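The following block was generated as part of the benchmark described in Methods. Ligand: O2Y.
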Amino acid sequence: MSAPTTNQKLLDWVAEVAEMTTPDQIVWCDGSKEEYDRLMAEMVASGMAIKLNEEKRPNSYAFNSDPSDVARVEGRTYIASVKEEDAGPTNNWIDPVELKATMRKLYKGCMKGRTMYVIPFSMGPIGSPIAKNAIELTDSPYVVVNMHIMARVSQDVLRLIEKEDDFIPCLHTVGAPLEEGQEDSRWPCAPIEDKYIAHFPEENLIWSYGSGYGGNALLGKKCLALRIASAAAKREGWMAEHMLILRFTNPEGKKFHVAAAFPSACGKTNLAMLQSTVPGWKVETIGDDIAWMKPGADGRLYAINPEAGFFGVAPFTSEETNPMALAACSKDAIFTNVVVTKDKDVWWEDMGYDCPDGGGTNWKNEAWLQSSGEKGAHPNSRFTAVAANCPCICPDWSDPAGVPIDIFVFGGKRTSTIPLVHEAFDFEQGVYMGATASSEPTAAALDLGNVSLRFDPFAMTPFIGYHAGDYMQHWFDMGEKLGDKAPKCFYVNWFQKDDGKFLWPGFGENSRVLKWMCDRVEGKVEARETPIGMMPLDGDITLDGLDIPAEDWEKLMKVDTEAYKATVNDARAYLAKFGDKLPAKMTEQLDKLEARLNA
Ligand code: O2Y
Ligand code: MN
């Protein structure tokens, strides 16, 4: 196949990688349905993919990974900045020269017996002033079909690359060359000690070796859209954040745009696709995982979802928890590591009903019975769903100009101490809230004797492509740049418990809290000042139709000053690890908060 581009930089890079990795052939991808169908047919024929029941799950496929290759591998993920201090304490660092030498040895001949696919893709609507053009080279057809859904794969991107003479190079291999006559495995990959997910932020370069799974292999997602993009955003004056984006529209048709960051297991995808219970108010989804935001000509902050699909966790996704996500994967979907039922549909734990016929084929590709008590789907099993197939997708989700953000929401999972919602006095306190977002340790961590809070600044800990202290400073700098056009900041905690029972019903009812935020943005309601921020006045979050006793509401809204002081102490200890790079404004926020709590 002749190369469908005249861009010399791209042609040279493809030739250089091909010489190093020695694939049997090179295929330039075009993102077409024909290409998708052809690759899927090839993978079904090789036994890698299972075609699902066309009547129940049209145009959908299931895959089982190797049991050793089931999630992002943070321990093998590197920020190879030129200087170690630029990677900071939250990242693994290796000298880029040393890492490239190690990886070049691994890359040598690594695509032997395989096809190297050249995937031209855009993160964000093609041609958007906020989007970025990139090329992923991969020897995994599974990666190609997932990229078709998760990014905009098109030869139109090649035209932009030719015009701009610029692209982000992303190199990926499963790291499993095939000798002459050697039979391929169902899910080729390399052993853990040979896996590398490497980022070279100064060069806008990604090299990934040895894993075929999710964020390790679909390089547009966490590697490009967060780690490389966050470093570029700092240099270029914009923001790449681990945030969902939603539109909340009131009965008069006024639109509010919300970007929200939560650590894992806080229901981020569920909030992105929430079904409002507030009469006349409607939620529409723009993105469920990543937001790229740039100041617009009017001084407001405009956000796009750089992705085109959802790579959601399957277990616990049900008609009750997230009917919109279920609908999004009712067709044109890829499932990885779920149960394939006897009639070739999919099932996972907590889907809301028992596995039909009592069992099927589990994520390890073995015959499985639900009665065995063993999990059928891997806890990190995934659906890859087309965003446009989601019934609540916002009509403007692909607007190249993005949507203006009115509200930032941060949160964590705390069974006590942190009230349902509070609002920052100003943007700088909002940055403090985001930087100190924390959750209680899981039961497993408690067993290990690890009892302090787990801080996850802006839910970005594994995704900041540079020093986290500099990243916090960048948030303060963006606040200064945006001035009075900066979004209002709020902190939520949906997870307070009493006697082991959640005090707040969550899910769709969270819309009541979002409405209060919108009322605050519009100046429609007053709020009461507390040491930690502004909080709702009685009656401003309506509880109509909810069975919440007055004493429970009081607990949900209580500021427990003494318990909160302990959280601030933990935050101070956590932030100390950023040393000289901790912004002075962060220390100022800690001091002010402590003073208010002691007043
Ligand atoms: O395990 C993986 O490779 C996927 S991780 C992931 C996928 C979708 C959205 N968010 C995440 C995450 O780790 O934040
Ligand atoms: Mn995520």
